[in-house]
Amino acid sequence: MNTILIADDETEIADLVALHLEKEGYGVIKASDGEEAIRVIQTQSLDLAILDIMMPKMDGYEVTRQIRERHHMLPIIFLSARTSDFDKITGLVIGADDYMTKPFNPMELIARVKAQLRRSKQFNQTTTNQLILEAGGLAIYPEQRTVALYGENIELTPKEFDILYLLASYPKKVFSAESIFQKVWGEAYYESQNTVMVHIRTLRKKLGDDKNKFIKTVWGVGYTFNA
Questions:
Q1: pTM metric for this prediction
Q2: Which of 93, 190, 197, 210 has the most other CB atoms within 10 Å of its CB?
Q3: Who's near 218: CB < 8 A, 6+ residues apart?
Q4: What is the set of domains in the chain, with CATH numbers?
Q5: Where is the Response regulatory domain (predicted)?
Q6: In contact, 133 and 168? CB cutoff 8 Å
Q7: Would the CA dihedral through 140, 219, 177, 79 be positive or negative?
Q8: Each residue of 56-82: pLDDT tens digit?
Q9: CB 62 within 8 A of CB 54
Q10: Looking at the DSSP assignment, which residues form a beta bridge with residue 215?
């Protein structure tokens, strides 16, 4: 049975989400603030986390940052009253896998939970025993989901890793922003181009790729791994 953390200081919403998840056969652990969420993550085995942003003691952004320091694979869904594009992009860039705004349709949330759990399981299966990808001092280890540049580990968010691994798996092939979003996020989304652009920018910064040594922009088309 999959166990899911719900971290939200609005009791009614946490109870509603828990009710629907439990009907689907999931185990649920609830936390009412960010610090409690971190304690749960440190002591419990979880398969997915649903986080509010505006929580007392520690907001959802900081909770996500701390999760990603130790748990690169745990799917995270933000469920927030913040509706601006800036908030959505910020959440995705710091490491969330999905973002839903309140008010929300509980059945849509359940569908997104199932999609994230399915993707996590499928990715774990497909990366097992795959070859290390190396190019120009960059090494990508798909089984461990780690990246090293000239022997130094580079900390990437799950989505940044997925984008880099996708591009590096097909060197010289050009992927449009829309196709990257569809393959990495697993869905079509009208904001995909901007979201992918932000992730590519932060990925390049972490790789020190200011001259596009690894990820090349093909103007008007998309991105390619410049192996």
A1: 0.67
A2: 93
A3: 174, 224
A4: 3-125 (3.40.50.2300), 129-225 (1.10.10.10)
A5: 3-117
A6: yes
A7: positive
A8: 999 999 999 898 877 777 899 999 888
A9: no
A10: 225
